[in-house]
Amino acid sequence: MRSPNLALASPRYVRDATDPRRVERALNDFRDGLARWRLAVALARLDIRNRYRGSVIGPFWLTLSTAVMVTGIGILYSTLFKLSLEEYLPFLAVSLLVWTTLSQIITDAGNSLIYSEGVIRQVPLPYTVHVLRFVIRNVIIAAHSLPLIVVVFAIFGVMPGPEALLAIPGLLLLFINAFAGGLFLGMICARFRDIQQIVASAMQLAFFLTPVLWKPDLLGDRQAWLPLNPFFVLMETVRGPLVEGGASAMVWLGAIVYTAAACAVAFLFFVRFRARIAFWV
Questions:
Q1: Within-domain flag for 188
Q2: Angle at CA 30, nearest 5°, toward 29 and 33?
Q3: Segment 60-69, tens digit of pLDDT
């Protein structure tokens, strides 16, 4: 005998999955989710509070670990690369902070929907609220390390010029990619749980292929190929204005193109598979 619950739920699922209004439903989800940004902020703060419950300094442990890495790696690699600390340490501090934020966002993106499984199954909220919650959580955690850059710049007398303001649109591009990545990887990892391990392994390889510890000019003429690395262009839109007097037009073009592609892929997947998310988490 067919279950009455299944009989009621199945037609609804089929209609929603094949409804030509899927684009409209997805756009409404975006609109309603962004309109509830205060809820996303409250949930993100709750996540951070629960993650560091019982800790003395909370998220500042990340700041402390980054400071230790900057000091240790800075002294070692400045010697290996034959660079002065005054030249290398500000570059390294910004690089590690931006890379740590980027890596944490991509690694955590796979859990953006899985982490909210209980809420998704019980409360009819827009899915974009959960993705926005993930983005805001990582923004708040990254902000705890900003004083480290200020301290390093003050110690070595680095004073960025007016071009430092270009780091703001760079950060905006970074977090637009974070939202797109949280939406796309959140759905993919909810459906295929092994993808998250693949992403984590890929990020370890990307760390060595991206100029985080080493400067791009060490590649000589081959640095012209670096804009093909999406991690490099996203990082350089923030790092360039702060420590290198700005980023090239090719870097900005690459960052905009990669951001548009990420948003397009995430939106297409969201339109197609939005109705199945509750079944996947």
A1: yes
A2: 80
A3: 777 788 888 8
Q: What is the pLDDT of residues 238-264, one digit of tens each?
A: 999 988 878 888 999 999 999 999 999
Query: Which pTM value belongs to this model?
Result: 0.83
Tokens of 186: 């959140």
Calpha distance 118→281 (Å, rounded): 9
SS3 category, 150: helix
Residue 156 maps to a domain: yes
Q: Report residue 231 as tokens.
A: 């991690």
Q: Give how many domains the chain has, as a whole number.
A: 1
Do the Cβ atoms of 59 and 138 come closer than 8 Å? no
Beta carbons within 10 angstroms of residue 160's beta carbon:
18
Does residue 238 belong to any structural domain of this protein?
A: yes
Taking the CA of residue 119 as centre, how many other CA atoms within 13 Å lie in the half-sphere pointing to its CB? Answer: 16
pLDDT tens for 28-70 read: 999 998 899 999 999 888 888 887 777 767 777 777 888 888 8
Whether residue 131 is contained in a domain is answered as yes
Helical (H) or strand (E) element with 233: helix 230-243
Per-residue DSSP letter, 210:
S
Q: For residue 182, what are the domain limits?
A: 35-280
Q: How far is CA 83 from the centre of its chain?
A: 30
Max Cα–Cα distance, the chain, nearest Å: 78
